[in-house]
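Narrative of activities, Objective 1.

The group set out to show that a structural description can be obtained from nothing but a protein's sequence at a throughput compatible with the screening campaign. Below is one input-output pair from the validation batch, recorded exactly as produced.
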Amino acid sequence: MEKKQLTRGDSISVELPPGVAYVVDLSLKEARPLPKRLPDLAISEADVALGDKGGHVMLTVHNVGLAPAENVKVRVVDVETDETMGEQLIPLIEAPLDLEPRIMYLQFEKVDTAPSRAVRVTVDPDNEIVESDERNNEAAVAF
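Output recorded for this entry:
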């Protein structure tokens, strides 16, 4: 029997052949205190779009956590050269405690959006904000 310790957000891939019964036994080893309320900044490929004007990139940055986030840095980098194409600071993104999305829209100008170019957008690139999930802070998009 394989044992695995999981934390919030972990996933497990399991292949189950048809016609065989399986039992999965989950048990709590130790109760932990409720986690601290933290922000969870997020961006995905769907949140990065070309603007109406050439060289403009439009971003949607989310906070899906349980606390507001202040002084959120957002950086756009050329994937091939690792050159920073732009950086902006969001003063505050509130937490969606009323289940209404909390998002900020940003526009970056003078970004090389030529075909075959790609950018990587990173929210909190220097990891200055403690978050409940750091895995959703980056998106790469090819134009």
